[in-house]
Amino acid sequence: MWVFFSKKQYAGVVGAFNCQGGGWFPEERINKCASQCSKRVYSTISPNDVEWYQGSEPIVLIDGMEEEFAVYLYQAKRLLLIKRMDDIHISLDPFDFELFTMAPVKRISSAIKFAAIGLTNMLNTGGALEHVKAIGLHALVEVKGCGEMWAYASKEPTRCKLNGREVDFVYGSEEGTVVIQVPWNGGPNSIVEYLF
């Protein structure tokens, strides 16, 4: 299994790939699988796989942040809430992969925890996040691009706004997901506001 990580200022991503048992055959100009060399692999993924404190924009996991992470699984299209020291057990068939976007959860009030996940139509879901800020009982997220914007919220928002206008959203009470459609606006970044 091959694992990589990347991070942006507000989230990290860990990718796991099972690349075994195949290769490029130049005579036929195609990739082929050697089934006798291919098998399912097993591993674990954790928020500790992301080097949060490294690079030019370190993510300091303090200042109201919980030791919890909202983790979005790209292929499975689901959200998990885990502690920093928890492991996610994975298994991958040959030529399969999974991407894990990990966003630190921040407590914005005594009853509300929040984490911006990003645009789930992008491989690096959190790469769309340009700015995330919590003010009182609402959170502002500046997002670059278009698609399905996901966030984690421990409580359902009373309303959501996109560029100042109220928009429909779907709240998954079991997972705490807040999903908003962000259309292409042809120019500047979009501002998503979550009001609790």
Task: Note down, in words, how this protein is organized.
The N and C termini lie far apart (42 Å). The chain is built from no helices and 18 strands. The strands form 4 sheets. Strands 1, 2, 6, 7, 9, 10, 13, 16 and 17 form a 9-stranded antiparallel sheet that branches. Strands 11-12-18-14-15 form a 5-stranded antiparallel sheet, with no helix packed on it. Strands 3-4 form a two-stranded antiparallel sheet. The chain is globular, with a radius of gyration of 18 Å. It is an all-beta fold and 196 residues long. Helices cover 0% and strands 54% of the residues.
Instruction: Quickly count the helices.
Output: 0
Question: Strand pairing plus helix content: what structural class?
Answer: mainly beta
Radius of gyration: 18 Å
Find the CATH topology: Immunoglobulin-like
Characterize the main sheet. Answer: 9 strands, antiparallel
Mean pLDDT: 87
Can you tag this structure with a few keywords?
globular; 0% helix; 196 residues; mainly beta; single chain; Immunoglobulin-like; 18 strands; nine-stranded antiparallel beta sheet; 54% strand
How is the secondary structure organized here?
Blueprint lengths: L1 E6 L4 E6 L4 E4 L4 E4 L7 E5 L19 E9 L4 E6 L4 E5 L4 E11 L5 E7 L9 E7 L2 E6 L3 E7 L5 E4 L2 E3 L2 E3 L4 E6 L7 E6 L1
Antiparallel strand pairs: 1-2, 2-9, 3-4, 5-8, 6-7, 6-9, 9-10, 10-13, 11-12, 12-18, 13-17, 14-15, 14-18, 16-17
